[in-house]
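Handout, page 2. Input:
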Amino acid sequence: MPDTPTPATMHKNPGHVAAAGSAVHAPSAASAATDAGKPTGERGRTALAVGVVEKIAGMAAREVNGIHALGSGLARTFGAMRDRVPGGKSGVGRGIKAEVGEKQTAIDIALVVEYGVVIPELARQVRENIIDAVERMTGLEVVEVNIAVNDVHLPDEPDVEEEEEETVVAGQRPKLK
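Output:
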C-alpha cells in the first residue's frame, strides 16, 4: 500500500507525486512561502460552536446583580424540566441566542429582572459584561448585544423552579389539584 502523504510531508516536499487514483494537491510555492512566514498560532482555523458563545454570554450576564433569570417564562419552565432530566442540556445558555461568524458574533438575550433595579443601567452592565467576556474568551468581535426584558420578578412571587419543586417531590407523582 503506497504511503499517503500528510500535510506536513507535503509542506516539506511540495513536489510529491501522488499515487494513481488519489487526489492530493500540493501547496504552491507561493502559498508555502506565505505559510512559512506565519507564526504557528496563525496556521489553520478555529471554529466556535454557537453554544460556546451562548454559554459564555449566559455566565457573563448572570454575574450582574439585579438579574433574576434568563429567558422568557415558557423557556424557563421547559428549561427547568430539562435540567431535571439526567444527561439533559445545561441551562447556562437558556434565554440567549447567538449568531456566530468567522470573526464576529451578535447576541440576543432575554432577561427577567428583579423589582427595583434601574433597567437601562442594568442593560448597560449586562451588555458590557457580555462583550468583555465573549471578546476576551473567543477573540470574536461582538457587533451587538440586544437585550429584551421580558418580566420583572416581584419579591413575593415564587420562582418557576420553586413551583415545580413543590409539585414534584422525590420522584413521586405530583398531587392533583
